[in-house]
Design a protein that fits this description.
Hypothetical protein af1432; 22 strands; about 775 residues; 7-stranded mixed β-sheet; Rossmann fold; 7-stranded parallel β-sheet; globular; alpha/beta
Length: about 775
């Protein structure tokens, strides 16, 4: 048989596919292999050369040519996995026993997801007979010629002999695994090999090669130029503090060395942390890239979508409207448009590049980052290898759940110590995750003491929504100004908005935000609020809490975990253009005498916060005193919040129990909720019609491409609500459809979705 006629897919040579995939694997594994003193790039090359070797079986070739074929004998991953195990074990006899096993797992699962390692030791007589039959069908001549053509030094006859011992070898590996001193390294190495193979494989299929990394260096001086054009010198106190903090941080960076892998940046809200973090990251990127002679990625992760677009736009302005290979945003609402100066990409190609983090700087969510670190799914793990080497910035790190602090500390430290990852934690309220970091704002306490933008009051008596309405209305009547009222549930926000409106305040002087408003409208309102100069009252939930650049004269905040209180306070007199703003903390109760806060926050977090408030806020405090209460709050949390969930996950990671690892989610599952498409505009009508065409499309690839072309716009019209509120709506494609003609019964322009009256107050 002419081996050049063997196909990896219709019309494309199997030999070319194997060689090109191997080249990509080898390249992408070189850095980590050097760090670990393991020949990972050579192992990756072997895996790449053999991952689809089983496609040489005539039954697969029949399938490729759309002829009648045997489904069992056409499977290619099993035989390819055995050959990978054999090749790695033969070529690297001095390697640890588990490396051939990991190679086997990577190949056998490269078209699916990772399984518990205990499942991978199973190899029965049926499996052996299947592989023997496939090898017989391939034949000695084709097998040996193909192996020689791709540079693999083994023969058909020796391979058949090794197959006889494979069952025994897997049994021996299982015994070794059971008595093995489990650690995080194997998880990282397995995910790294798996990620590299599936990304190389699919990149070769889509682009017949690699997408070149941006070759240049992004100068950190771009931040200085941006600052000089955007911010004129001013006598305002906040300008002087921002400039001082910026210069002091750069000076402190001069004392940093590459062995210090965990950095922190702790500065008050409104002091320019975003630009400082970018300046630091670009400076580190320049130095590391020069010294290590490898591309260094910057991964900038934030907890909320409401601030991703804001910060991404700032980065875009700093760098000068760069192409996507330089700066990329990745979240579920991002447009499927990968911009390149050389090439134009189809929608599916763009989405592949976006999801694969093919860029120098990636701006993404905590969810995307941590579900890349802790996952079994190919869709999440495909970008795992992009983390090495990288600088990962976690902005607003205080929003990372305390129950996972121990897990994150150990995992982050391991990635830093052994795999070439540098971390930077950015916040005004630094949680007690790490015992020691390199603090970039070495004299951060100085800035907290200097800034005196707000006075903080605590209302000791519990209040209801009527009382809160009266207090806010009284403040508004005394002096019209910009007031933000942040409550903990959507139900409370809806009711408060309605009651304040009844006091006679003009609806034009009242703004409203919650997640029951479609995302497109939320973004529009946040931008409007940012730019608004005239007095108004904003009723909101936690959407604007962290990082959103809005500024109010007065803030009212329902009780919450301490870091949330601090973040909400950061929206008050943010730019210090007036003497002193006012922050009023209160405890809001419903008509069942239950705190609204208890519906959304962990009892331990609320308990520690309440104790702190009662102990320190019996009288008004100024900002310098207020923020100094943060360290003891986090230290107390560290003592009280159970780490059991994180410890269990850490153990599952060490033991490669992917069925348990895959359950990890930063966002708690809400099985009683359902997505609803809100057809509230003419654009939404067109998008829904296109969605119906997606569902009707029979051809899988066409359906995928059509979906990707509307995904961003479609998601902008989704909200998530309780299932029981939408039982009467039609279900289409796994979600509920709210048509335009039913809008008045379920959705209103100002407050969004209309919940059932008897359940509304707790949402």
């Amino acid at each position: 048989m002419d081996i050049r006629s063997l196909e990896a897919r219709p019309g494309y040579s199997l030999i070319d596919h194997l060689i090109e995939t191997a080249r990509l694997c080898e390249k992408w594994l070189e850095f980590v292999g050097t760090k670990l003193s393991l020949p990972l790039s050579e192992i990756g090359r072997l895996i790449g050369l053999l991952h689809d070797f089983g496609k040489a079986c005539p039954e697969f070739q029949k399938k490729s040519h759309r002829k009648k074929y045997n489904p069992h004998l056409s499977q290619h991953a099993f035989l390819s996995a055995f050959l990978s195990y054999y090749a790695v074990k033969t070529n690297f006899k001095s390697l640890p026993w588990y490396i051939p096993l990991l190679s086997y797992i990577v190949v056998i699962r490269h078209h699916g997801y990772l399984h518990d390692i205990n499942e991978e030791f199973v190899f029965d007589d049926y499996d052996k007979e299947l592989l023997e039959k496939q090898m017989e069908l391939i034949g000695e001549d084709t097998f040996d010629t193909l192996a020689k053509s791709i540079g693999i030094n083994f023969s058909y006859r020796n391979t058949k002999k090794r197959l006889q011992d494979f069952k025994k070898e897997l049994w021996e590996a299982e015994d070794k695994w059971d008595s093995f001193q489990h650690n995080l390294d194997l998880y990282v190495i397995l995910n790294l090999l798996y990620s590299t193979l599936i990304d190389s494989d699919r990149s070769e299929v889509i682009f017949h090669g690699e997408i070149k990394d941006y070759p240049g260096i992004i100068s950190s001086e771009l931040v200085d130029r941006y600052k000089s054009t955007q911010f004129s010198p001013s006598l305002e106190p906040i300008y002087k503090i921002r400039e001082d903090a910026y210069k002091a941080t750069i000076e402190q960076l001069g004392k940093w060395d590459q062995s210090q892998k965990i950095l922190s940046l702790t500065l008050p809200t409104g002091t320019g942390k975003t630009l400082i973090a970018l300046k630091v990251a670009l400076t580190l990127q320049e130095e590391l890239q020069r010294d290590l002679n490898v591309p260094i990625r910057i991964i900038y992760a934030l907890p909320f979508l409401s601030i991703i677009d804001q910060n991404f736009d700032v980065f875009k302005e700093v760098i000068g409207n760069p192409s996507s290979d330089v700066l990329l945003a990745h979240h579920h609402l991002v447009e499927s448009n990968y911009r390149s100066p050389q090439d134009e990409y189809e929608t599916s190609e763009s989405w592949f590049l976006i999801e694969g983090w093919n860029s120098k700087i990636i701006v993404t969510t905590f969810v995307q980052l941590f579900e890349t670190l802790f996952s079994a799914r190919a869709s999440s793990l495909r970008k795992f290898h992009r983390l090495f080497p990288s600088i990962i910035i976690l902005d607003e790190i205080q929003n990372f759940p305390p129950k996972y602090w121990n897990l994150f500390q150990k995992f982050a430290q391991s990635l830093s110590d052994k795999f070439g990852v540098w971390w930077m934690m950015v916040t005004a309220t630094q949680p007690a995750i790490f015992d020691k970091t390199f603090e970039l704002a070495s004299n951060s306490k100085k800035y907290f003491k200097k800034i005196d933008r707000i006075g903080v009051n605590f209302l000791p008596d519990k209040i209801d929504i009527q009382k809160l309405t009266d207090l806010v209305h009284k403040s508004w009547k005394n002096q019209r100004k910009k007031i933000m009222v942040e409550v903990n549930t959507i139900g409370a926000a809806r009711k408060l908005y309605k009651m304040i409106l009844r006091t006679g305040i003009n609806s034009q002087e009242l703004e409203y935000l919650s997640s029951h408003i479609i995302a497109k409208e939320r973004r529009r309102r946040i931008e409007k609020i940012r730019k608004r100069k005239t007095p108004f009252i904003l009723i909101t939930t936690q959407l604007v809490e962290a990082g959103v650049d809005i500024d109010f004269d007065e803030v009212w905040r329902d009780i919450a975990p301490w870091d949330s209180v601090i973040q909400a306070s950061g929206r008050c007199n943010r730019n210090w253009k007036k003497g002193q703003g006012i922050v009023n903390l209160f405890e809001l109760y419903n008509n069942k005498n239950r705190r609204f806060a208890s519906y959304v926050y962990d009892a331990t977090l609320l308990g520690v916060s309440k104790e702190l408030i009662e102990k320190n806020l019996l009288h008004s405090l100024q900002e310098p005193d207020f923020v100094m209460l943060t360290p003891p709050y986090f230290e107390e949390l560290k003592k009280r919040v159970s780490q059991d969930k994180g410890i269990d996950l850490l153990e599952n990671i060490k033991r490669l129990r992917y069925s348990e690892i895959s359950k990890f989610s930063l966002i708690e599952e809400q099985p009683n909720k359902m997505d609803v498409f809100v057809e509230c505009t003419e654009e939404a009508k067109r998008i829904w019609k296109n969605f119906l065409k997606v569902i009707e499309e029979k051809e899988i690839e066409n359906r995928k491409n059509k979906w990707l072309s509307i995904k961003n716009m479609f998601s902008s019209y989704l909200i998530s609500v309780k299932k029981e509120w939408v039982v009467t709506l039609e279900e289409v494609g796994g979600l509920k459809y709210l048509p335009f003609e039913l809008l008045k019964n379920f959705y209103e322009r100002k407050r969004g979705f209309i919940p059932q009256k008897d359940k509304a107050e707790i949402w």
